[in-house]
Amino acid sequence: MERQSETTELFGNSRNDGLTSAVATIENGFGDELFYLNIASRALNLLYFVTA
Predict the structure, then answer these.
(1) How high is the pLDDT of residue 38?
(2) pLDDT tens-digit readout, 17-47
(3) How many domains does the chain divide into?
(4) Does residue 22 lie within any of the structural domains?
(5) Is residue 46 part of a domain?
(6) Are 37 and 43 in contact (CB under 8 A)?
(7) 11 Cβ neighbours under 8 A, 6+ residues apart
């Protein structure tokens, strides 16, 4: 991809504390109620936050 100039300078750059932030995000809630109630919704959102 890089030889064909299909990438930008942002491609492949690591994000600072990306995984830590993603894990902390799925543990958020309001009061005693978590935003992501079951393991499936937590896994799906963790995958989204890590790849987005």
Answers:
(1) 92
(2) 778 888 888 888 898 898 988 999 999 988 8
(3) 1
(4) yes
(5) yes
(6) no
(7) 1, 2
Residue 38 structural domain: 15-51
7 phi, psi to nearest 5 deg: -115, 160
The C-alpha atoms of residue 23 and residue 25 are separated, in whole angstroms, by: 5
User: Measured between alpha carbons, how far is 46 from 51 in angstroms, rounded to an integer?
Assistant: 9
Helical segments of the chain, H only: 18-26, 39-51
In a domain, 5, yes or no: no
Residues 6 and 25: their CA atoms lie apart, in Å, by 32
User: How high is the pLDDT of residue 41?
Assistant: 92
Judge contact between 38 and 15, C-beta under 8 A: no
